Amino acid sequence: MSRYIAFDVETPNRFNDRMSAIGITVIENGVITKKLYSLIDPETSFDYFNTRLTGISEETVRGKPAFPEIWEKIEPIMNSGVLVAHNAPFDMGVLKCCLRDYGISWKTQAPYLCTVRIGRRVLPKMSHKLDSLCEYYGIELDHHHAGSDSLACAKILLRYIESGTDVNQFIKTYSFL
Questions:
Q1: In the structure, what pLDDT confidence band is assigned to residue 1 with cuts at 50, 70 and 90?
Q2: What is the number of other CB atoms lying within 10 angstroms of the CB of residue 18?
Q3: What is the DSSP letter of 146?
Q4: Cα(43)–Cα(14) distance, rounded to whole angstroms?
């Protein structure tokens, strides 16, 4: 595959079943070709911890579109390549919950890559936290901002590819059933 869709979500509370923001960075043939960021009204309550971590609150998302409206815009993108996330099971799980809770049908499974999993193989002796990898690679990061996190994830994936890693051997399949 030569098209990767790096994405990151922020959540409003400890249940991690809704999004308050999403960032998407598209890589085509080794080049970042598109970046997208959107706040999302999760239509649920915010926990103090999440608001403090992300800077996103009920006031921040007031008047913003809910997930179904955002999904209409991003589904063609999300459907166009291998999904990539840093600690992918988390982001994939939140996406799955949003699709389920809003009764949105999508594909039953999707190919994905986790940059944490790849990193543990490629750089076994270091921390695989997003901020640690960004520091190691000299990548600018506004941590817990979905747009910045997805861009950082994309750049980390590109660094792995540039170093000769065959990232496609790490592709797994996520079930949305």
A1: low
A2: 23
A3: H
A4: 14
Distance (Å) of CA 38 to CA 16, 49, 79, 136: 17, 21, 18, 28
CA distances from 4 to 46, 78, 94, 108 (A): 31, 9, 19, 19
How many Å apart are CA 167 and CA 1, to the nearest integer?
10
CB atoms within 10 A of CB 152: 27
Q: In the block, which residue shows the tokens 């944490």?
A: 116
What percent helix, strand, coil does the chain show, rounded to 5?
Answer: 40, 25, 35
Burial letters 95-134, b for 16+ CB under 10 A, else e: bbbbbeeeeeeeeeebebbbbbbbbeebbeeeebebeebb
- Residue-wise pLDDT tens digits, 112-153: 999 999 999 999 999 999 999 999 999 999 999 999 999 999
**Contact (CB, 8 A) for 166 and 143:** no
Radius of gyration of the chain (CA): 16
Candidates 37, 39, 47; CA nearest to 16 is: 47
pTM above 0.90, yes or no: yes
Name 49's Cβ contacts closer than 8 Å, sequence gap at least 6. Answer: 14
Label the pairing between strands 109-114 and 172-175.
antiparallel
